[in-house]
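Fold it.
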Amino acid sequence: MSVSSKAIILIGGPSKGTRMRPLTLDTPKPLFPIAGRPLIWHHIRALSKVTGITEVFLIGFYEDAVFAPFLKDVSREFKNLSVKYMREYQALGTAGGLYHFRDTILRGTPGQIFVLHADICCSFPLKELQDFHGTHRGLVSMLGVRVPKETASKYGCIVPDTVTKQVLHYVEKPEGFISDLINGGVYLLEAQGFFDAIRVAMVRKSQQEMEDPYSYQDDLLRLEQDVVVPLCDDKKVFVYETLDFWRQIKTAGSALPATALYLHQYRTTNPEMLTKPKPGGPEIVEPVHIDATAQVDPTAKIGPSVSIGPGVVIGAGVRVKESIILDNVTVDKSAIVSNSIIAADCRIGPWARIEGEPLNPTSVVDSPTKETITILANNVTVARDVLVRCCIVLPQKTLTSNWWNEVLL
């Protein structure tokens, strides 16, 4: 018998996702297209396959109108789910937002709640997490992922019991190496008990402010630091380790490996999302997603790991690989686009070359200025024969000469 469940996706707000700029100047990070679909569409798709989930809440502090079209689309596509956006009156923190909407979330007395951070790309093994959760008496099951030792300290690090998988020690972004098993940003919680834990965390924070009124305390209540860490200390958290793919999406460049991962996953989960080679069509090096409204010349060569959005026009002899091309872009004849992200309404002239360096699949880029790919923001024009390599170009620019390793304001 399945347990009644609800799900929450923590989407943040306009002050978040600044490291994704310039791609998020016009599109909020949770809605940025990854493999042809908004980032959080992949979360909702995974949740739609979990028996017992009927409601999904998006919690953040964007304007309501920002998510209205997306909500309409997913309501039509995932008819078994009610997907709603709940807007915080101000930034409350990842746990503060949960507690603010506790009455709505707990309505109907759900037994369990999935909580997913928006800024991750993974296979979302939610059924496996649910099965694991039933094997212990803890309050929380978290998804754990192995990462290279040299990058582990950039995440929340987990030291589990090797047999029971109970979390013995958990530290958010430690100064030194603790473990290469990190928090994957996906949780399954016992509903009532977890909200009790949030209330305890709020009381604890208020007491700290009273005891030391001169110390700086912001108004944010954070899920990991303020709630999960104390629960780990109380031995109420267990970790389910997945061997499937996982990637955090922090900077604009991380959208490229995320797109490649999802395109490969489509082969088994959503083959209808992939474009197949066909007689008289362009040469396709799979996996590739091309929107049905895009026009691609039959002499073009596309792929691998390419996503092409609506209204795009690809000219004769064009080569595109390991790139994202968004809405209404024109790529003129014999141009090359590789290891790049081209935002909406750009125009790439004939014989132009837009290139970046291939990303290491396990690399972590903290700053957008350290990207090695090329990113063109909206409405950028690249003239004929121009080379743009490893550059970030802000909107409304026209490039008539060669550029490399620059941020063009």
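The radius of gyration is 22 Å.
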